[in-house]
Design a protein that fits this description.
Strand order of the largest sheet: 4-5-6-7-9-8
Radius of gyration: 17 Å
Distance between the termini: 38 Å
Number of strands: 9
Strand content: 15-25%
Shape: globular
Largest sheet: 6 strands, parallel
Number of domains: 1
Bound molecules: iron/sulfur cluster
Length: 238
């Protein structure tokens, strides 16, 4: 299998059983925006991911993310298609070996290709990254003070100017879905608006707190049918 299990245990969000799997160890990701980074999937170990999305048990790995399925509207804004990568990982959990940090030697790692990095104990992430060249990461759990230490590794995902202000007041660097910048933000250079100038693998600006690094904004993107509508929905949901 082209992956390895780096965590199996309780979710740091709600205590449910989860598993963390790194993929792309032999065959680099073909994701056009991230480039050839190692990917990491954070899923429940006891229920298929697309089922967890529908019945709400995905809270163990996605927490209070506003992109989750909303049973009242019947809509889900998140662009990760859980019946693709996450389900493929879930189906082959029994076949993955245990992760060894040497497996990530000199590679970059995407923290939470699916699932929020906050669900994994932070010391596990330091273990995963000890031989990695660099990483990127984002969390929607920045409002929860239990996860303040993640500022060292991840950006706070924000959908509104007000949320960005709150996150910054708590010390986070921010990654905001927006069409125009606020002071201190620069456009993601891998975005369509920036002309796809690079990939996350080469850029790695989104790696958490740093006194001199700017915040990032990016226009609506992903697999959604109507990214512009997604942004409006997100700003309402936040
Ligand atoms: S700013 Fe860099 S690391 Fe962040 S999303 Fe854009 S390309 Fe990736």
């Amino acid at each position: 299998m082209d992956g390895a299990i780096f965590y199996r245990g309780p979710s740091m969000i709600d205590g449910s059983p989860i598993v963390g799997v790194v993929t792309g160890l032999r065959k680099a990701s073909t994701n056009a925006k991230t480039g050839g980074m190692l990917q990491s999937y954070i899923i429940r170990s006891d229920v298929p991911p697309q089922v967890a999305v529908k019945d709400g048990r995905d809270a163990a790995v996605c927490g209070t993310c506003p992109l989750r399925f909303n049973p009242e509207t019947g809509e889900r804004i998140c662009y990760v298609l859980t019946f693709q990568g996450p389900l493929a990982v879930y189906k082959t959990l029994a076949d993955y070996p245990d992760f060894d940090p040497a497996m990530a030697n000199g590679r970059s790692v995407r923290l939470g290709t699916y699932g929020d990095p906050a669900a994994i104990p932070i010391w596990i992430w330091f273990h995963v990254l000890q031989h990695a060249s660099h990483w990127t990461g984002y969390t929607h759990q920045w409002r929860d003070r239990r996860f303040a230490r993640l500022q060292a590794l991840t950006m706070a995902s924000c959908e509104t100017v007000a949320d960005r202000a709150r996150a910054k007041a708590d010390g986070w660097r921010t990654f905001r879905l927006a069409t125009t910048p606020e002071k201190g933000e620069i456009l993601c250079p891998a975005s369509a608006e920036a002309g796809h100038r690079t990939t996350c693998d080469r850029c790695s600006l989104c790696r958490g707190s740093h006194p001199t690094m700017r915040d990032i904004y990016i226009g609506p993107h992903g697999n959604g049918r109507n990214p512009g509508r997604q942004l409006i929905q997100l700003q309402k949901a936040s």
